[in-house]
Amino acid sequence: MEQSEKIKQIIKTLDLEPHPEGGYFKETYRSQGKLNPQESGLRIEGERNFSTCIYFLLTAGNFSAFHRIQQDEIWHFYDGAPIDLHIISKEGVYKKIKIGRDFSNGEVPQYVVSAGDWFASEVASDGAFSLAGCTVAPGFDFRDFELAVTDQLTLEYPNHAKIISRLTR
């Protein structure tokens, strides 16, 4: 099957829709249980589900723009080309993690992005697509989502201006 047909099939089969940061997604799980994050010292407001999960699909030439949330986010690799996950920590340290299944070349099948760190992702190398899952705890809510503004993020982390410029909208 041709790659573009496989991508269309994944989008249809998994019922994915465009994500505001780039790529496609579908929420697959939202726990019934809820918590009040203020009682646990988290920096988010309002009640949250214990956990949420999504499918996340990126295609070649597209990217998930730098953004951050106030919870840890666990990335899980499923199919396609490896994912380049770009992270700028709260302390300003940049690192690139390859999420995939070629362990002998340093790829990892899952990775945790720490709460409050800026991160972006893209399909690695010449791949046509990458399919991953993302788990957030406490559960994701768009109230916790912040999409980076190029100029503001560059002012905060001028040493990373090149990657910020390339992976913001």
Mind explaining what this structure looks like?
The strands form three sheets. A six-stranded antiparallel sheet has the order 1-2-5-12-7-10. Strands 9-8-11-6-13 form a five-stranded antiparallel sheet, with no helix packed on it. A two-stranded antiparallel ribbon has the order 3-4. The chain contains three helices and 13 strands. 14% of the residues lie in helices and 41% in strands. Strand 1 and strand 2 form a beta hairpin. It is mostly beta strands. The chain is globular, with a radius of gyration of 16 Å.
Strand order of the largest sheet: 1-2-5-12-7-10
> What class would the helix/strand composition place it in?
mainly beta
Report helical residue fraction.
10-25%
Fraction of residues in β-strands: 35-45%
Total beta-strand segments: 13
* CA gyration radius, whole angstroms: 16 Å
Q: What order do the SSEs take from the amino end to the carboxyl end, as H and E?
A: HEEEEEEEEEEEEEHH
Q: Specify the number of helices.
A: 3
Q: Write down the overall geometry.
A: globular
Oligomer: single chain
Regions with little confidence, pLDDT below 50 for 5+ residues:
none
Largest sheet: 6 strands, antiparallel
Instruction: Give the CA-CA distance, first to last residue.
Output: 32 Å
Mean pLDDT: 94
Q: What descriptive keywords fit this protein?
A:
169 residues, 5-stranded antiparallel sheet, mainly beta, 3 helices, 41% strand, single chain
